[in-house]
Amino acid sequence: MTPDDLLARHRSVLPSWLPLYYDEPLEIVSGSGRRVTDAQGRSYLDFFGGVLTNMLGYDIPEVREAIERQLRTGVVHTSTLYLIRAQVELAEKIARLSGIPDPRVFFTTSGSEANEAALMFATNYRRSNQILAIRNSYHGRTYATMGITGNRGWSASGLSPLNVSYLHSGDRLRGLLAGLDDERHIEAAAADLREVVATTTSGTVAALIAEPMQGVGGFVHGPDGLFSAYRKVLDEYGVLFISDEVQTGWGRTGEHFWGYQAHGIVPDLLTFAKGIGNGLALAGVVGRAEIVESVQGISFSTFGGNPLSTAGGNAVLDYLLAHDLQANAREVGRLLRDGLDEAVRRYPIVGDVRGRGLMLAVEFVQPGGTEPNGYATTRVFEECRRGGLLVGKGGLYGNALRIGPPLTLSAEEAREGLEILTTAIAAVDREGAPA
Protein backbone atom coordinates (compact mmCIF):
# COMPACT_ATOMS: atom_id res chain seq x y z
CA MET A 1 0.00 0.00 0.00
CA THR A 2 1.34 3.43 -0.93
CA PRO A 3 1.00 6.46 1.36
CA ASP A 4 -1.45 7.98 -1.13
CA ASP A 5 -3.66 4.90 -0.97
CA LEU A 6 -3.87 5.10 2.82
CA LEU A 7 -4.47 8.86 2.69
CA ALA A 8 -7.34 8.43 0.23
CA ARG A 9 -8.87 5.73 2.44
CA HIS A 10 -8.44 7.99 5.50
CA ARG A 11 -10.23 10.85 3.79
CA SER A 12 -13.08 8.65 2.61
CA VAL A 13 -14.07 7.35 6.05
CA LEU A 14 -12.80 9.86 8.65
CA PRO A 15 -14.13 13.41 9.23
CA SER A 16 -12.57 16.32 7.36
CA TRP A 17 -12.05 18.22 10.65
CA LEU A 18 -9.63 15.53 11.85
CA PRO A 19 -6.26 17.09 10.96
CA LEU A 20 -3.17 15.37 9.59
CA TYR A 21 0.31 16.81 9.93
CA TYR A 22 2.51 17.63 6.92
CA ASP A 23 1.92 18.25 3.22
CA GLU A 24 2.58 14.53 2.77
CA PRO A 25 1.03 12.86 5.84
CA LEU A 26 3.18 10.43 7.77
CA GLU A 27 2.45 6.84 8.80
CA ILE A 28 4.62 5.73 11.73
CA VAL A 29 5.12 1.96 11.71
CA SER A 30 7.76 1.35 14.39
CA GLY A 31 9.70 3.07 17.15
CA SER A 32 12.57 2.57 19.53
CA GLY A 33 13.90 4.95 22.16
CA ARG A 34 13.29 8.46 20.91
CA ARG A 35 13.13 7.51 17.22
CA VAL A 36 10.30 6.40 14.96
CA THR A 37 10.27 4.95 11.46
CA ASP A 38 7.73 5.66 8.73
CA ALA A 39 6.23 3.30 6.15
CA GLN A 40 9.00 4.17 3.68
CA GLY A 41 11.73 3.25 6.16
CA ARG A 42 12.72 6.83 7.01
CA SER A 43 13.81 7.39 10.61
CA TYR A 44 12.95 10.51 12.62
CA LEU A 45 14.01 11.89 15.97
CA ASP A 46 10.74 12.49 17.80
CA PHE A 47 10.47 15.84 19.61
CA PHE A 48 6.69 15.65 20.04
CA GLY A 49 6.08 12.18 21.51
CA GLY A 50 2.54 11.67 20.25
CA VAL A 51 1.52 15.06 21.67
CA LEU A 52 3.61 14.67 24.86
CA THR A 53 2.11 11.23 25.47
CA ASN A 54 5.00 8.84 24.75
CA MET A 55 6.74 10.15 27.85
CA LEU A 56 9.32 7.37 28.09
CA GLY A 57 9.75 6.95 24.35
CA TYR A 58 9.19 3.77 22.39
CA ASP A 59 9.62 0.06 23.07
CA ILE A 60 10.57 0.37 26.73
CA PRO A 61 11.27 -3.19 27.99
CA GLU A 62 9.92 -2.63 31.51
CA VAL A 63 6.62 -1.29 30.20
CA ARG A 64 6.31 -3.93 27.47
CA GLU A 65 6.93 -6.71 30.00
CA ALA A 66 4.28 -5.34 32.38
CA ILE A 67 1.70 -5.23 29.59
CA GLU A 68 2.63 -8.70 28.32
CA ARG A 69 2.45 -10.09 31.86
CA GLN A 70 -1.11 -8.80 32.18
CA LEU A 71 -2.06 -10.09 28.73
CA ARG A 72 -0.84 -13.55 29.67
CA THR A 73 -3.47 -13.67 32.41
CA GLY A 74 -6.12 -13.52 29.69
CA VAL A 75 -7.74 -10.51 31.41
CA VAL A 76 -7.72 -7.18 29.60
CA HIS A 77 -10.90 -5.85 31.14
CA THR A 78 -13.13 -6.54 34.13
CA SER A 79 -14.67 -3.07 34.80
CA THR A 80 -14.38 -1.16 38.05
CA LEU A 81 -17.23 -3.19 39.51
CA TYR A 82 -14.50 -5.63 40.53
CA LEU A 83 -11.32 -5.09 42.52
CA ILE A 84 -8.33 -4.32 40.30
CA ARG A 85 -5.01 -4.70 42.08
CA ALA A 86 -2.99 -2.63 39.58
CA GLN A 87 -5.57 0.15 39.78
CA VAL A 88 -5.35 0.34 43.57
CA GLU A 89 -1.54 0.28 43.48
CA LEU A 90 -1.37 3.08 40.90
CA ALA A 91 -3.95 5.15 42.77
CA GLU A 92 -1.88 4.84 45.96
CA LYS A 93 1.23 6.10 44.16
CA ILE A 94 -0.55 9.02 42.49
CA ALA A 95 -2.31 10.01 45.70
CA ARG A 96 1.02 10.09 47.52
CA LEU A 97 2.72 12.11 44.77
CA SER A 98 -0.14 14.57 44.27
CA GLY A 99 0.54 16.69 47.36
CA ILE A 100 -3.22 16.92 47.95
CA PRO A 101 -4.35 16.12 51.51
CA ASP A 102 -6.70 13.15 52.03
CA PRO A 103 -6.85 12.43 48.29
CA ARG A 104 -9.10 10.20 46.22
CA VAL A 105 -8.27 9.08 42.68
CA PHE A 106 -10.73 8.43 39.85
CA PHE A 107 -9.39 6.93 36.60
CA THR A 108 -10.65 7.74 33.10
CA THR A 109 -9.38 7.06 29.59
CA SER A 110 -8.45 10.57 28.38
CA GLY A 111 -7.58 14.05 29.52
CA SER A 112 -10.89 15.33 28.20
CA GLU A 113 -12.76 12.84 30.34
CA ALA A 114 -10.54 13.62 33.34
CA ASN A 115 -11.35 17.32 33.09
CA GLU A 116 -15.02 16.50 32.56
CA ALA A 117 -14.97 14.49 35.80
CA ALA A 118 -13.20 17.29 37.68
CA LEU A 119 -15.90 19.71 36.55
CA MET A 120 -18.57 17.28 37.72
CA PHE A 121 -16.94 17.04 41.15
CA ALA A 122 -16.52 20.82 41.49
CA THR A 123 -20.03 21.74 40.33
CA ASN A 124 -21.60 19.09 42.59
CA TYR A 125 -19.57 20.23 45.58
CA ARG A 126 -20.28 23.92 45.06
CA ARG A 127 -23.83 23.47 43.70
CA SER A 128 -22.99 25.88 40.90
CA ASN A 129 -22.37 25.61 37.16
CA GLN A 130 -20.28 28.79 37.05
CA ILE A 131 -16.68 28.19 35.99
CA LEU A 132 -13.67 30.46 35.57
CA ALA A 133 -11.23 29.58 32.81
CA ILE A 134 -8.28 31.18 31.04
CA ARG A 135 -8.17 32.70 27.57
CA ASN A 136 -6.13 30.65 25.06
CA SER A 137 -6.73 27.49 27.12
CA TYR A 138 -7.59 24.00 25.91
CA HIS A 139 -9.17 21.38 28.17
CA GLY A 140 -10.63 18.79 25.82
CA ARG A 141 -13.09 17.84 23.10
CA THR A 142 -16.06 16.72 25.23
CA TYR A 143 -19.12 18.89 25.75
CA ALA A 144 -18.24 20.61 29.03
CA THR A 145 -14.48 20.79 28.39
CA MET A 146 -15.10 22.35 25.00
CA GLY A 147 -17.23 24.91 26.80
CA ILE A 148 -14.31 25.99 29.01
CA THR A 149 -11.75 26.05 26.20
CA GLY A 150 -10.61 29.61 25.57
CA ASN A 151 -9.31 29.13 22.02
CA ARG A 152 -11.85 29.62 19.22
CA GLY A 153 -10.01 27.28 16.86
CA TRP A 154 -10.73 24.39 19.22
CA SER A 155 -14.28 25.35 20.21
CA ALA A 156 -16.50 23.28 17.93
CA SER A 157 -19.72 24.66 19.41
CA GLY A 158 -20.95 27.76 21.19
CA LEU A 159 -23.25 25.62 23.33
CA SER A 160 -22.23 24.62 26.85
CA PRO A 161 -23.77 23.23 30.04
CA LEU A 162 -21.63 25.67 32.02
CA ASN A 163 -21.64 29.41 32.63
CA VAL A 164 -18.04 30.38 31.88
CA SER A 165 -16.08 33.59 32.49
CA TYR A 166 -12.56 33.99 31.13
CA LEU A 167 -9.43 35.56 32.62
CA HIS A 168 -6.49 36.99 30.70
CA SER A 169 -3.81 34.52 29.66
CA GLY A 170 -0.13 34.69 30.56
CA ASP A 171 0.87 35.76 27.04
CA ARG A 172 3.97 37.95 27.27
CA LEU A 173 4.15 38.83 23.57
CA ARG A 174 0.76 40.44 22.98
CA GLY A 175 -2.44 41.27 24.82
CA LEU A 176 -3.30 43.53 27.76
CA LEU A 177 -0.68 42.01 30.09
CA ALA A 178 2.15 41.95 27.55
CA GLY A 179 5.37 43.65 28.55
CA LEU A 180 4.71 43.66 32.28
CA ASP A 181 7.35 42.38 34.66
CA ASP A 182 6.43 39.40 36.85
CA GLU A 183 5.25 41.44 39.84
CA ARG A 184 3.06 43.79 37.82
CA HIS A 185 1.73 40.90 35.72
CA ILE A 186 0.62 39.03 38.83
CA GLU A 187 -0.97 42.15 40.32
CA ALA A 188 -2.87 42.88 37.11
CA ALA A 189 -3.99 39.26 36.70
CA ALA A 190 -5.28 39.10 40.29
CA ALA A 191 -7.14 42.38 39.79
CA ASP A 192 -8.64 40.97 36.58
CA LEU A 193 -9.85 37.88 38.48
CA ARG A 194 -11.42 40.01 41.19
CA GLU A 195 -13.24 42.16 38.65
CA VAL A 196 -14.45 39.18 36.59
CA VAL A 197 -15.92 37.51 39.68
CA ALA A 198 -17.56 40.76 40.77
CA THR A 199 -19.04 41.65 37.39
CA THR A 200 -19.73 38.46 35.40
CA THR A 201 -20.71 35.94 38.09
CA SER A 202 -23.17 35.64 40.98
CA GLY A 203 -20.20 35.11 43.31
CA THR A 204 -21.09 31.46 43.79
CA VAL A 205 -18.51 30.10 41.38
CA ALA A 206 -17.65 26.40 41.36
CA ALA A 207 -14.00 26.50 40.27
CA LEU A 208 -11.20 28.07 38.33
CA ILE A 209 -9.54 25.60 35.97
CA ALA A 210 -6.10 26.44 34.59
CA GLU A 211 -3.17 24.80 32.85
CA PRO A 212 0.17 25.68 34.47
CA MET A 213 1.43 25.87 30.87
CA GLN A 214 -1.12 26.04 28.07
CA GLY A 215 -0.64 23.02 25.79
CA VAL A 216 -2.55 23.67 22.57
CA GLY A 217 -2.13 27.37 23.38
CA GLY A 218 1.55 27.13 22.48
CA PHE A 219 3.04 26.62 25.96
CA VAL A 220 2.09 30.11 27.12
CA HIS A 221 2.34 30.50 30.89
CA GLY A 222 2.22 33.22 33.51
CA PRO A 223 4.90 34.05 36.08
CA ASP A 224 5.67 31.72 38.98
CA GLY A 225 3.41 32.66 41.86
CA LEU A 226 0.45 33.63 39.67
CA PHE A 227 -1.75 30.80 40.94
CA SER A 228 -0.96 31.80 44.51
CA ALA A 229 -2.33 35.27 43.83
CA TYR A 230 -5.39 33.71 42.20
CA ARG A 231 -5.86 31.45 45.20
CA LYS A 232 -6.04 34.36 47.63
CA VAL A 233 -8.96 35.83 45.68
CA LEU A 234 -10.65 32.46 45.16
CA ASP A 235 -10.50 31.67 48.87
CA GLU A 236 -12.51 34.80 49.63
CA TYR A 237 -15.41 33.25 47.71
CA GLY A 238 -14.79 29.57 48.50
CA VAL A 239 -14.01 28.87 44.84
CA LEU A 240 -12.12 25.64 44.08
CA PHE A 241 -8.93 25.49 42.02
CA ILE A 242 -8.43 22.77 39.38
CA SER A 243 -4.93 22.30 37.97
CA ASP A 244 -5.06 20.75 34.51
CA GLU A 245 -1.80 18.76 34.49
CA VAL A 246 -2.60 16.68 31.41
CA GLN A 247 0.57 17.98 29.73
CA THR A 248 2.59 19.49 32.59
CA GLY A 249 2.57 16.53 34.97
CA TRP A 250 5.13 13.81 35.80
CA GLY A 251 8.19 16.09 35.91
CA ARG A 252 8.03 17.33 32.32
CA THR A 253 8.71 20.95 33.31
CA GLY A 254 11.93 19.88 35.03
CA GLU A 255 11.83 22.15 38.03
CA HIS A 256 8.77 20.48 39.53
CA PHE A 257 6.90 17.18 39.39
CA TRP A 258 3.60 19.02 38.87
CA GLY A 259 3.24 22.36 37.14
CA TYR A 260 1.23 23.80 40.02
CA GLN A 261 4.26 23.50 42.33
CA ALA A 262 5.86 26.54 40.65
CA HIS A 263 3.18 28.66 42.31
CA GLY A 264 3.40 27.69 45.95
CA ILE A 265 -0.13 26.33 46.27
CA VAL A 266 -1.91 22.98 46.35
CA PRO A 267 -4.96 22.60 44.10
CA ASP A 268 -8.25 21.10 45.22
CA LEU A 269 -8.38 18.89 42.14
CA LEU A 270 -5.64 17.83 39.74
CA THR A 271 -6.20 16.15 36.37
CA PHE A 272 -3.66 13.92 34.65
CA ALA A 273 -3.36 11.93 31.41
CA LYS A 274 -1.01 11.51 28.42
CA GLY A 275 2.42 10.58 29.79
CA ILE A 276 1.27 8.25 32.57
CA GLY A 277 0.08 5.71 29.98
CA ASN A 278 3.01 6.18 27.56
CA GLY A 279 0.48 5.49 24.80
CA LEU A 280 -2.07 3.46 26.75
CA ALA A 281 -5.47 5.09 27.35
CA LEU A 282 -5.01 6.19 30.95
CA ALA A 283 -6.01 9.41 32.71
CA GLY A 284 -7.79 10.60 35.80
CA VAL A 285 -8.46 13.04 38.61
CA VAL A 286 -6.98 13.23 42.09
CA GLY A 287 -8.64 15.53 44.57
CA ARG A 288 -9.67 16.19 48.15
CA ALA A 289 -11.94 13.42 49.37
CA GLU A 290 -14.82 15.69 50.38
CA ILE A 291 -14.98 17.10 46.84
CA VAL A 292 -14.62 13.82 44.96
CA GLU A 293 -17.17 12.19 47.27
CA SER A 294 -19.74 14.93 46.58
CA VAL A 295 -21.12 13.12 43.52
CA GLN A 296 -24.81 12.37 43.94
CA GLY A 297 -25.76 8.83 42.97
CA ILE A 298 -23.64 6.10 41.41
CA SER A 299 -20.99 6.69 38.75
CA PHE A 300 -18.11 4.74 37.29
CA SER A 301 -15.88 4.53 34.22
CA THR A 302 -16.21 1.35 32.17
CA PHE A 303 -12.66 1.41 30.82
CA GLY A 304 -10.99 3.87 33.20
CA GLY A 305 -8.25 2.21 35.24
CA ASN A 306 -8.66 -1.18 33.56
CA PRO A 307 -6.17 -3.98 34.37
CA LEU A 308 -4.10 -3.50 31.21
CA SER A 309 -3.75 0.29 31.31
CA THR A 310 -2.95 0.41 35.03
CA ALA A 311 -0.43 -2.42 34.72
CA GLY A 312 1.30 -0.26 32.12
CA GLY A 313 0.81 2.91 34.17
CA ASN A 314 2.50 1.37 37.20
CA ALA A 315 5.48 0.39 35.07
CA VAL A 316 5.66 3.86 33.51
CA LEU A 317 5.57 5.65 36.87
CA ASP A 318 8.06 3.26 38.47
CA TYR A 319 10.46 3.77 35.54
CA LEU A 320 10.03 7.56 35.67
CA LEU A 321 10.89 7.70 39.37
CA ALA A 322 13.69 5.11 39.29
CA HIS A 323 15.48 6.97 36.50
CA ASP A 324 14.78 10.47 37.88
CA LEU A 325 13.45 11.68 34.56
CA GLN A 326 12.38 14.96 36.11
CA ALA A 327 16.07 15.80 36.60
CA ASN A 328 16.79 14.74 33.03
CA ALA A 329 14.00 17.01 31.77
CA ARG A 330 15.54 19.89 33.70
CA GLU A 331 19.09 19.33 32.47
CA VAL A 332 18.43 18.39 28.85
CA GLY A 333 15.67 20.98 28.65
CA ARG A 334 18.13 23.67 29.71
CA LEU A 335 20.44 22.64 26.87
CA LEU A 336 17.61 22.99 24.37
CA ARG A 337 16.39 26.27 25.83
CA ASP A 338 19.85 27.84 25.67
CA GLY A 339 20.14 26.91 22.01
CA LEU A 340 16.69 28.22 21.18
CA ASP A 341 17.25 31.48 23.06
CA GLU A 342 20.19 32.07 20.73
CA ALA A 343 17.79 31.71 17.79
CA VAL A 344 15.74 34.65 19.08
CA ARG A 345 18.79 36.87 18.92
CA ARG A 346 19.87 35.66 15.45
CA TYR A 347 16.65 35.30 13.45
CA PRO A 348 14.03 38.09 13.15
CA ILE A 349 11.23 35.61 12.39
CA VAL A 350 11.54 34.16 15.91
CA GLY A 351 9.41 36.32 18.19
CA ASP A 352 9.53 34.29 21.37
CA VAL A 353 10.95 31.17 22.98
CA ARG A 354 9.16 29.99 26.11
CA GLY A 355 8.53 27.05 28.38
CA ARG A 356 10.66 25.04 30.76
CA GLY A 357 12.12 21.58 30.99
CA LEU A 358 11.13 19.45 28.01
CA MET A 359 8.08 21.57 27.25
CA LEU A 360 9.29 24.38 24.98
CA ALA A 361 7.83 26.49 22.20
CA VAL A 362 9.14 28.75 19.44
CA GLU A 363 6.75 31.42 18.16
CA PHE A 364 7.21 32.92 14.70
CA VAL A 365 6.37 36.51 13.82
CA GLN A 366 6.76 38.94 10.96
CA PRO A 367 10.23 40.50 11.30
CA GLY A 368 10.22 43.67 13.36
CA GLY A 369 6.91 43.10 15.10
CA THR A 370 4.58 40.64 16.80
CA GLU A 371 2.23 39.87 13.90
CA PRO A 372 1.87 36.07 13.70
CA ASN A 373 3.84 34.48 10.86
CA GLY A 374 1.96 31.35 9.86
CA TYR A 375 3.96 30.96 6.65
CA ALA A 376 7.29 30.76 8.48
CA THR A 377 5.82 28.35 11.03
CA THR A 378 4.62 25.95 8.35
CA ARG A 379 7.86 26.18 6.41
CA VAL A 380 10.03 25.48 9.48
CA PHE A 381 7.68 22.64 10.44
CA GLU A 382 8.09 20.99 7.03
CA GLU A 383 11.85 21.63 6.95
CA CYS A 384 12.23 19.90 10.31
CA ARG A 385 10.48 16.83 8.94
CA ARG A 386 12.77 16.85 5.88
CA GLY A 387 15.73 17.06 8.22
CA GLY A 388 14.54 14.06 10.22
CA LEU A 389 12.87 15.80 13.19
CA LEU A 390 9.23 15.66 14.28
CA VAL A 391 7.84 18.63 16.22
CA GLY A 392 4.33 19.87 16.98
CA LYS A 393 2.35 23.01 16.24
CA GLY A 394 0.06 25.18 18.35
CA GLY A 395 -0.63 28.65 19.65
CA LEU A 396 -3.71 30.85 19.42
CA TYR A 397 -2.73 31.83 15.87
CA GLY A 398 -1.11 28.51 14.90
CA ASN A 399 2.30 30.17 14.71
CA ALA A 400 4.19 28.27 17.40
CA LEU A 401 6.20 25.08 17.17
CA ARG A 402 5.83 22.84 20.21
CA ILE A 403 8.69 20.74 21.52
CA GLY A 404 7.75 17.96 23.93
CA PRO A 405 10.09 14.98 23.45
CA PRO A 406 10.21 11.88 25.66
CA LEU A 407 11.69 12.62 29.08
CA THR A 408 14.38 10.04 28.34
CA LEU A 409 15.90 12.32 25.66
CA SER A 410 19.69 12.30 25.86
CA ALA A 411 21.92 15.37 25.63
CA GLU A 412 23.35 14.05 22.36
CA GLU A 413 19.86 13.67 20.88
CA ALA A 414 18.93 17.13 22.13
CA ARG A 415 21.91 18.63 20.29
CA GLU A 416 21.01 16.68 17.16
CA GLY A 417 17.42 17.91 17.21
CA LEU A 418 18.48 21.45 18.03
CA GLU A 419 20.80 21.48 15.02
CA ILE A 420 18.01 20.33 12.69
CA LEU A 421 15.57 22.88 14.12
CA THR A 422 17.92 25.87 14.04
CA THR A 423 19.08 24.94 10.53
CA ALA A 424 15.44 24.94 9.43
CA ILE A 425 14.81 28.31 11.10
CA ALA A 426 17.91 29.79 9.45
CA ALA A 427 16.86 28.56 6.01
CA VAL A 428 13.33 29.97 6.29
CA ASP A 429 14.60 33.24 7.74
CA ARG A 430 16.94 33.67 4.75
CA GLU A 431 14.26 32.96 2.16
CA GLY A 432 11.83 35.49 3.62
CA ALA A 433 8.12 35.74 2.80
CA PRO A 434 6.80 34.59 -0.59
CA ALA A 435 6.61 37.24 -3.30
Structural features, described:
It is built from 13 helices and 15 strands. With 435 residues, the chain is α/β, with parallel strands linked by helices. Strands 4-10-9-8-7-5-6 form a seven-stranded mixed sheet, sandwiched between helices. α6 links the parallel β5 (130-134) and β6 (163-167). The longest helix has 22 residues, at 325-346. The two termini are 38 Å apart. The model has no long low-confidence stretch (mean pLDDT 95).
Write a compact overview of the structure shown.
This protein is of the alpha/beta class. It contains 13 helices and 15 strands.
From N to C, what is the helix and strand string?
HEEEHHHEHEHEHEHEEEHHHEEHEEEH
What distance separates the N and C termini?
38 Å
Strand order of the largest sheet: 4-10-9-8-7-5-6
Largest sheet: number of strands, sense, barrel closure: 7 strands, mixed
Question: How many helical elements?
Answer: 13
Helical residues, percent: 25-40%
The best one-word shape is globular
Strand content: 15-25%
**Strands, count:** 15
The SS-based structural class is alpha/beta
Q: Round the mean pLDDT to the nearest integer and report it.
A: 95
Runs in which pLDDT lies below 50 for 5 or more consecutive residues are none
